[in-house]
Amino acid sequence: MFSGERSEPASLQRSDSHIRLQDVLDLLAKSQPGADLEKVKQAYVFSAKVHHKQTRLSGEPYLFHPLNVAWLIARMNLDDVSVITALLHDTLEDSLTQAEELEKLFGPVVRFLVEGVTKLARVSFHSGGERQAENVRKMLVAMAHDLRVIFVKLADRLHNMRTLEALEPAKRAAVSQETLDIYAPLANRLGIQWIRSELEDWAFRWLHPRQFEEVAEKLSNFCLERETYIADVVGVLKKVLEDNQIEAEVSGRIKHPYSIYRKMQLKHVDFDQIYDIIAFRVVPRTVDDCYRVLGLLHAMWKPVVGRFKDYIAMPKINRYQSLHTTVLGPGGERVEIQIRTRDMHRVAEQGVAAHWAYKEGVRDVDRKKDLSQFTWLRELIEQYKDVRDPAEFLENVKVDLFSDEVFVFTPQGDVKALPFGATALDFAYLVHTQVGHHCVGAKVNGKIAPLRQKLKNGDTVEILTRPDQKPSKDWLAFVKTTSARNKIRSVIRAEERKRSEEIGRELLEKESKRRGVNLQRAWKAGAVGDAARDLGFKDAQELMIALGYGRLQVSRVIERLAPDKKTESAPPAAEVKVEPTEAAFRKPGKKSKSGILVQGLDDVMVHFAKCCNPILGDELVGIVTRGRGVTVHVRTCRRLSEADPERRIDVRWDMEAAVTRAVSLRVSCDDRPGLLANISNVLSDAGVNITQVAAKVVDVGSAVVLLKIAVESLDQLQKMIQKLERVKGVNRVERMQG
After folding, report:
1. Roughly how many angstroms between the first and final C-alpha of the chain, as a whole number?
2. Hey, what long-range contacts does 270-275 have (CB within 8 A, 24 or more apart)?
3. Would you call 712 a catalytic residue per the annotation?
4. Which residues are 692's β-sheet partners?
5. In a domain, 706, yes or no
6. 14 and 153 fall within a common domain
7. pTM (whole model) above 0.85
8. What mean pLDDT comes out for the span 13-40?
């Protein structure tokens, strides 16, 4: 019925302890006749030796993991070096093996690839966010040199996801979320759809087990109910092709569970309201036949307006090519059909790996030419090289990896590709940085449009500029692309730094006069520069900027410039004018009860950001705000990307302070009597206070409950979410931030 292509939950494969080295060698010999099988055997023996007596959390011998990864690599038809790397990929991290030893035994390329795959386990970071960011950064840089790094990493992650049940729930959830955020989108950008689908389904299964089982069961029932209909459609398609003498393969497939679940969440609908669960595929021999098939389908069944896409004429960035159309098929039901040649199908399934051949005789120049077609990867590296904050780095990576594309035209008819959701402002920066900096508006299809207008496929865009226009901080609220965002931030930060330097100089001059310090003499003698270095700054300019931002108190600089003035008594309070930046660090009255320590202090004026609403257990970042003290954000808050890194300050939770914080929850549920009472009872039994509640029906049989509850920590919140999701009729519970 499905030509072996059914993507049911049952197809999720677990770790296969029956895989043997010979299975890997057989696959490799079939796809790579010139492969060095003896070297592969040597790598297997070496891996077995260094992982001897090591076991995984599941209790199985550790060697099963690299062997499974090697089998996945061989299944992708990659070369012997890739398979060797897979067998050795954990030797640097999980054994005493040194990189020099790998190079001596297996060569410099294998060493480079293994180092690229290896996590930075031996490096100390301040937070899990920093570790994750640096792991991803290192992986992307290694990918830019050799894509085999990411092939092995994806295979490694896939096998880990298959065996994740051995981990504790919190760790399992963290790995699954990282898989959804980073690795599944990477597989998609590289066009390796079977890995992407399986990674998403495993992450879905571990993150939302109840919802996964519900979708899986409904998919299984759907397959049984629609078996005859699917067979009929396939039969009709084959008959039409045969009558018109077009040789082609026809098949149907069920979309995988996570894609169904994601569509349900995005559209706020039930499973029964998803109409494109089945997709049919026609694979003819030539491009001409693809368009002939399209014409025949549209002549036979009425096409649905707005549901046709030509990825043959305009391939996706990952080289995916296909014709997509949705028609009203038998019985007036919507039928989604994809049409592509056999070569296009091979690339659609295997992506980059389908043509990334490392065989004897392939010249380096040919490999570079192949890699040159993945300019998005090098652009990714270039855009992120100066991003220091780990949260901002990861957020940018997620945005760029998840984005689909739209194609728009310049007035001259040139085609420009932008991520889905991109605005006229993104287009302006894509044309040229200076065009972006000075743009004041746009014309879309000949009509005046605001800069924030989102672009659609086929739009013709003309940018309007003015010489005196400058980038605005407000632009960051709607700009989509990382490139445009970074260029806007760069200008805004430069202006803020300049203004802060001026403020810092003014503050130092006023305090010097008050203390009787000859500041002009100190500048000439180089004492200000010396003071800057003593306080940990590169030079006097950086010191002035820190003073202007409020990250440093002026009194500390004066103490360095004139130690004898250190103990000088201050004049009466009425005579002292407190500058706004210093006021950020002063809080009148008694000790702060916010539960936040700022650089080890407990008497700082603190505000919690409303955009992310931190609670105990969240990783934090502080932003100095003139006149308002320190605003505390969750480290992953998107609004942090709009703040100047110079304003950031270390903050942490005061573990001795007991602070209750309000958190908003969105509960997606069935519309049934008594459900709200059940939800309230669960929270009441747990001793959690509800401060606000609202409920509304969003569709037939579906409702949303918005709750505001008081919790003491992230751990307590997560337990409450788990309890609520066990209530019959509750489909999903989300923490609302922003």
Report:
1. 46
2. 270/699, 270/701, 270/702, 271/214, 271/215, 271/218, 273/699, 275/333, 275/334
3. no
4. 708
5. yes
6. yes
7. no
8. 83
Rounding to the nearest 10 degrees, give the CA dihedral for residues 390, 392, 397, 402: 130
| Sheet strand arrangement including 730-736 | 689-699, 702-711, 661-670, 730-736
In DSSP terms, 632 is beta-bridged to 608, 622
263, 189: one domain: no
Concerning whether 386 is annotated as a catalytic residue, the answer is no
Do 70 and 203 fall into the same domain? yes
How far is residue 153's CA from residue 162's CA, in Å, rounded to a whole number?
Answer: 14
Structural domain total, the chain: 5
Beta bridge partners of 408: 416
CA distance linking residue 580 with residue 547, whole number of Å: 11
- What one-character DSSP code corresponds to residue 179? I
Alpha carbon 676 to its chain centroid, in Å, reads 34
Catalytic residue, chosen from 94, 232, 270, 370, is 94
Long-range contacts (CB closer than 8 Å, 24 or more residues apart) made by 353-361: 353/76, 353/77, 353/78, 353/151, 353/190, 353/192, 354/77, 354/191, 356/78, 356/147, 356/148, 356/151, 357/79, 358/78, 358/79, 358/81, 358/82, 358/148, 359/32, 359/34, 359/79, 360/34
Could you give the C-alpha distances from 532 to 382, 512, 516, 528, in angstroms and in order?
32, 16, 20, 6
- Distance of alpha carbon 463 from alpha carbon 450, whole angstroms: 10
The kind and range of the H/E element at 302 are: strand 302-303
Residue with tokens 């918005």: 706
Q: Which two tokens stand for residue 255?
A: 């979309």
CA 133-137-138 angle, to 5 degrees, is 120
Q: State how far the Cα of 472 lies from the Cα of 489, in Å rounded to an integer.
A: 9
Mapped to the 3 state alphabet, what secondary structure does 400-451 carry? HHHCCEEEEECCCCCEEEEECCCEHHHHHHHHCHHHHHCEEEEEECCEEECC
Residues 279 and 307 in one domain: yes
Show which of 172, 207, 242 is a domain's final residue: 207
717/688 Cα distance (integer angstroms): 10
Which CATH number fits the domain that encloses residue 186?
1.10.3210.10
Q: Out of 311-320, 464-473, 483-492, which region has the weakest mean confidence (pLDDT)?
A: 311-320
How much is the average pLDDT of 25-37? 88
Closest to 602 in 3D by CA, of 588, 590, 591:
591
State mean pLDDT over 3-31: 67
Statement to judge: residues 39 and 126 lie in one domain: yes
Q: Give me the domain span that covers residue 612.
A: 596-653
Residues 483 and 387 sit within 8 Å (Cβ to Cβ): no
With residue 168 as reference, give the H or E element that holds it.
Answer: none
Residue 134: pLDDT band (50, 70, 90) is low
Please pick, among 8, 93, 101, 725, the residue that the annotation labels catalytic.
93
CATH code of the domain in which 302 resides: 3.30.460.10
What distance in Å separates the CA atoms of residue 190 and residue 374, rounded to the nearest whole number? 9
How far apart are alpha carbons 585 and 359 in whole angstroms? 64
The 8-class DSSP code of residue 572 comes to P
Closest to 581 (Cα-Cα) out of 626, 631, 645, 551: 626
